[in-house]
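hi! just following up on the protien thing from before. the input was this:
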Amino acid sequence: MGTDYQSLSFEYRRYPEQQADYTAVTHPVIVVGAGPVGLATAIDLAQQGIRVVLVDDDCTLSSGSRAICFSKRSLDIFDRLGCGQRMVDKGVRWNVGKVFLQEQMVYSFDLLPESGHQRPAFINLQQYYVEGFLLDRARELPNLEIRWKNRVVGLQQGSEGVSLTIDTPDGPYTLKGRYVVAADGSRSPVRGLMGLDSKGRIFKDRFLIADVKMEAEFPTERWFWFDPPFHPNQSVLLHRQPDNVWRIDFQLGWDADPVLEKMPERVMPRVQALLGKDARFQLEWVSVYTFSCLRMDKFRHGSVLFAGDSAHGVSPFGARGANSGIQDAENLAWKLAAVLKSQAPEALLDSYAQEREYAADENIRNSTRSTDFITPKSPVSRVFRDAVLRLAAQHPFARQLVNSGRLSVPAVLHGSALNRQDQDVFSGQMLPGASCADAPVYAGAVQTWLLPELGQEFCALLFCDAMDLNTSVAQALQAIAAAPVPVKLIVVADGAAPAEAPSSYAGVRILHDAEGVAARRYDAQAGCCYLIRPDQHVAARWRKLDRTSLQAALSRALGMPASAY
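and the predicted 3d structure came back as:
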């Protein structure tokens, strides 16, 4: 049997700052909130050698399944944090979704139609498992300290950082940090203490979540019904989770009483109508929610940086909430680490806000469109939606208009000031600002995957002709020798690895693109080079590696002033 993460309770204990004779120190980073975003941020920083204090006002993990749908990009990040395989092993993999109008299937879609990816498009995994696996990883890191039942009740910011007042069962104490990451949820106490707010749109509709445990023959797919016979004039979503638990979302309408609708005598008939009169099941968790799409104006306020639900919120359609928060964490962590290590100016942190505000706007725009399609608020909108659904059953063009929650994809940071825009002609999706694509590669005779090879540091990814390997490595090493920060060099040689081919040469990792997948996805030819950021986003690319251009692109990616490049 695995760990029952919902039953865990973590011990409160006293810390040095609570002693009267303690001489205050300033911690490099304090993270507020031990949810998925706070844990991911803290782990990422700790793995990069930064000491982190993580405080949480509770002593348990999340109750109920909550966020359950985690994207390939999040899985790639969890891999880098050291717990991705546990997530995949426990989670329910899925790529296929189906859309129904009443009893008719309108169409189906495949979110990962091509092979050559280590991770599936999505897994479904209850949030308490995600938090539990992250917590297990966090406890392995000696420079990451977690403090339970530590509630932030006061905040003062000065030139040297932030002073937090922390309330505990033993009374308040002061905790100082150079930077504070507020990952404390949609009701963010930190945001409230700073007199800040989020702005946006509240949707006047209610949905019921019912987590149902049962043995069922439904396939491992995402099913979405518009106006089904078992729940007329509303919508329903069905997803499978681990442990034979199924997530069912029922649209209720704005006039529904949220207290009444959570009663078992109201929930059970709804579920029975969907599953059939002979189905046997039990309720695991029930919740009624109203949602909104909103965000803070700015995600950075001096030494306090907001991430996840504290910074932005979206409707649950499209699995954009937790996934975008995990991407906030990976964007922020490497930048904080670079600043604290004096590898980059503090202005680099402004790019966190700019890039993730852009991503939040994209998520909010897509989430709003999904919600407006799912819950039309006028007779004309309803007629349009139903006409689109009926056309979609026969005509591919109409399927592009159906929006049952277009699922989360990572934002391409087109306009980021950290990008060096292309000077050479490329095709494909790996443009500056994009997150890197995975591909199967070989280290010697052993098959591996490209993304884990990139790691979490700046990386020069060089594609070369296998016959010219030695010369290519020597030239690339010379190009990165004078870099202002360490740059990892990875060489991808074309074709299959020769017998007895080494997996490294002159200390450089050598990979072979036996199937040509990496070259296709990166539109790469011999001599092509990509500069990859620590969060595995493309910073720059060239058809031919040039030392001066690489140094300039690296300085730009570190947020240095223009005079540096």
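The first strand starts at residue 26 and ends at 32.
Residues 348-374 form the longest helix (27 residues).
cheers
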